[in-house]
Amino acid sequence: TIILLILVPYKIVTGPVYSSIHVDTVHSNFGGTTTTETLSVPLQQIAETYIMHENEFSVEDKRDFAFFFDSGTPRQYSAEIKPRDTDSLKFGHLRPEAEHLRTSSQKILFMKYYLKILFQFPISNITSFLNLTLGYWYPNFKLPDTSQALFPPQYIEYGNVGPLPTKKGIIHINSQPLIFPNLHRKIVQFTSRGEYQSLGIVSILFPPSFFIWTTLLLIFHLLYTRKLHEIIPFLLILFQIVTLFAGPVVILRYIFSLIFAFPLLFITTQIEPKSTNLLLNTNDTITKK
Q1: What's the CA angle centered on 227, arms 226 and 231, to 5 degrees?
Q2: Which of 255, 242, 246, 250 lies closest to 43, judged by CA?
Q3: What is the C-alpha to C-alpha distance for residues 229 and 234, in angstroms, rounded to an integer?
Q4: How would you class 216 by CB atoms within 10 Å of its CB: exposed for 0-12, middle for 13-18, buried for 19 or more?
Q5: Over 39-95, what HEC string results?
Q6: Percentages helix, strand, coil for the chain, rounded to the nearest 5?
Q7: Distance (Å, whole) CA 177 – CA 129
Q8: C-alpha closest to that of 215 among 260, 256, 262, 257
Q9: What DSSP assignment string belongs to 166-225?
Q10: For residue range 158-177, what is the model confidence (pLDDT) as tens digits?
Q11: Which residue in 5, 42, 72, 197 has the fewest CB atoms around it within 10 Å?
Q12: What is the distance in angstroms between the CA of the first residue and the CA of the last residue of the chain?
């Protein structure tokens, strides 16, 4: 039921609603594609492995690399690619073959190449993955992550104007709040602009990693106490965490749903329900009378 309550509205919005206003769901705001977004982590890993081990690439490896990526040198890649932001790679160094991968044969070819590089250079691939997802597992991650933004000084979390590509042109969406603008501004400054860091040790409660680690601890608690039926609401959260780690960059807004759900999830795992025999006891009393 919970899954259907989420899946059905999602399909309605991304299906008939998008079609009625001619939204193009294939392309992202800056000309990338859903394929490149999906493959953000493998693309980043391959590129960074190329930077570190280009001299160890075989002729075949270099040929396959040139099929998906441009002819930049490792030095150029190192200077332009940011370890915690795949956009700098996707929007500047990919060939059309990697941007689309429309056919099954192209996708299979890419995955074979990725797995080959992954097993040939496991350490560099693991390092690349940990760097890219730093904000989701490192407790003292600082927001905003100014050193990694493709468009300095940082990624704008929200409160910005964004272009939405459609088949009939570009629609600009203004997400500025209509009510309580001053409160909105203070919240932005405190969270995504980093003022929370002035709280000292308490500041570790605000990065994305805090909510991910505590959610995983809650799930472990349910497993330990054998409350397996209570894990069901966490399945969607687990799926979201997996998609976060497969994403192109760490941005606070990507975990808003987890932040808002966390208090309820915490309460449901810590509060024991009242006795289910209450109704039976009442009926017994009435019967005796």
Answers
A1: 120
A2: 246
A3: 10
A4: middle
A5: CHHHHHHHHHHHHHHHHHCCHHHHHHHHHHECCCCHHHHHHHCECCECHHHHCCCEC
A6: 65, 5, 30
A7: 35
A8: 262
A9: ETTEEEEEE---SS-HHHHHHHHHHTTTSGGGGGGGGGGGSSHHHHHHHHHHHHHHHHHT
A10: 444 455 555 555 555 555 66
A11: 5
A12: 41
Give Dmax (Cα) for the chain. Answer: 91
The confidence score (pLDDT) of residue 30 equals 42
Report the run of H or E that residue 162 belongs to, with start and end. Answer: strand 161-166
pLDDT in tens, 213-253: 998 998 888 888 888 777 877 888 888 899 889 888 887 77
| Dihedral in degrees, nearest 10, Cα atoms 19, 24, 26, 29 | -140
Nearest to 38 by CA among 105, 109, 110: 110
Alpha-carbon distance of 25 to 103, in angstroms, equals 18
d(CA 110, CA 117): 11
Beta-carbon contacts of 245 under 8 Å, excluding residues fewer than 6 positions away, are 41, 133, 136
Provide the pLDDT for residue 223.
Answer: 87
